Amino acid sequence: MRTDTTVRDVMHREFLGVSESDPLRDAAALLVDEGTNCLVVLRGGEAVGRLGCRDALGALLDAGTEAGDGGDPGLTVGSVMGPPLPTVSPDDALATVEERLVADGVDRVVAVEEGEAVGVVTASDVLAAGAPRTGEGARDPLADEGATGNPRRGDEAMMGSDGGVDPAVEASSTDASGSPTQGVCESCGALVPDLVSANGQAVCPECREV
Q1: 160 vs 100, higher pLDDT
Q2: Which one of 161, 176, 181, 184 counts the least CB within 10 Å of its CB?
Q3: Helix or strand or coil: residue 188?
C-alpha cells in the first residue's frame, strides 16, 4: 500500500457544479442525467454550498404542490442548497480525506487551492486508492448527501463531470461471519465504520432502521 498518495493524485479535476442562480429544475435534471447524488454550488471558483438529490426533489415536490398546476415554481439552487462540503488541500494525504468523510458523514470532499475549488474526491476514490482506515471520530451519516447543481464543464468554469461516480457499494472489511463491518453504505453513500447487513445490502445503522 502506498502511503505517499495525496489528494492531488486521485481527485477529479472535472466535477459537476452549479451556481446559486441556476434554476433548481435544471440542477435536478443534471443529477438524474449524470446519475449522481451530489453537486457542488460555486460562486466563481469558490465552493459555497451543496445540492443533494433529496433536497432538490423535496423542494420541487413542495413547490409543485403549492402551485397546484404543476408549473415551474421558479426555484433556484441558492434557495435550496445546503452548507458547503468539507474541504481539503490537494497536498493532503488520503488518510485526511477519510477522516473528513467519516467525521462529517458525507460521501465526498472538495479540494481547495488558493481559495478555489480545484477537484473532488469521493469515498470510492479513497477505497480504490487503499487509504489506511482510522475508524475514529465516526458518527451517524447525514441523511442527505450534498453537492451542487447546474453544470458548466471544463477548466474555465472550474467544474465539470466526475463521471457520475457514486459511492462504492462494497464494504471494505468483514467480521468473522462474513458480514460487512466498515465501508460505504449502499443506501446513503456515507463512509462509516460500522456497516451491517440488511436485505442483502451493506448499510449503516441509520439506513437499516428506515
Answers
A1: 100
A2: 176
A3: coil
φ, ψ of residue 84 to 5 degrees: the values are -60, 155
29 compared with 129, residue with greater pLDDT:
29
State pTM to two decimals.
Answer: 0.60
Phi, psi of 144 (to 5 degrees): -105, 135
Annotated binding-site residue numbers: 185, 188, 204, 207
Residue 176's pLDDT is 47
Q: 41, 51 in Cβ contact below 8 A?
A: yes
144, pLDDT greater than 90 = no
Predicted confidence at residue 132, as pLDDT, reads 53
Nearest one of 54, 51, 110 to 76, comparing CA atoms: 51
Q: Which residue has the higher pLDDT, 46 or 184?
A: 46
Annotated binding site for Fe cation: 185, 188, 204, 207
Residue ranges of the annotated binding site for Zn(2+) are 185, 188, 204, 207
Segments of 9-91 assigned E as strands:
17-19, 38-43, 46-52, 87-88
Place domain 7-164 in its CATH homologous superfamily: CBS-domain (3.10.580.10)
| Residue 120 contacts residue 109 (beta carbons within 8 Å) | yes
Average pLDDT over the chain, rounded to an integer: 76
Pick the closest to residue 77 from 97, 115, 103, 50 (CA basis).
Answer: 50
